Amino acid sequence: MLPIIYEDALRRPDLFLWFGVTEAEFENWLTALPLRVHPGLVGFWRRTGGGDLFESETLLGPLVEDEDDNVLKVNEYHWSKGLPSDLLIFHEGLCLSASFVDRPRHRNQLVSFRSGSYQIGRQFDTFNEWYQQTIRAEYAERYGLTNE
Question: 23, CA 20 to 30 Å: which among 42, 46, 64, 124?
Fold first, then answer.
């Protein structure tokens, strides 16, 4: 069974613009990354390279040239503004979302922040759970992606 984000992209490809990534480039990037991120996020990046979806959501990409969409460039900015260095933002839009990177107890969790802050609002165990309860919860009905 495909994670819901891929099912939604198949049903409404006009709403999902993946950045793309080659396997070799991604594996080199991942090997050089000094952080360990959520495995669901790694799988998502490996498949899509990140992307823009719906009207205002960006899932930052590891190898994107545009600094506004590049996961490490965006995080350098947020770390300089006080984001704890054990969090890696991977999503901008309705909220900011991040992966724990260096907290062994939370390494396999994704989080969304409260509006306008780096204060954690919600935590998620899987990438699928994060997508369903954040982005999809906002847009599914509007774009006909609800399950009948």
Answer: 124
State the residue range of the domain holding 99: 4-139
pTM for this predicted structure: 0.92
> pLDDT per residue over 65-118, tens digit each?
999 999 999 999 999 999 998 899 999 999 999 998 866 665 678 999 998 899
Domain count, the chain: 1
Strand spans (E) along 12-79: 16-18, 51-53, 57-59
Whole-angstrom CA distances from 71 to 7, 10, 11, 63, 119 are 24, 25, 27, 8, 19
Cα dihedral: 112, 113, 114, 120 (round 10): 100
Give dist(CA 145, CA 140) in Å, integer. 5
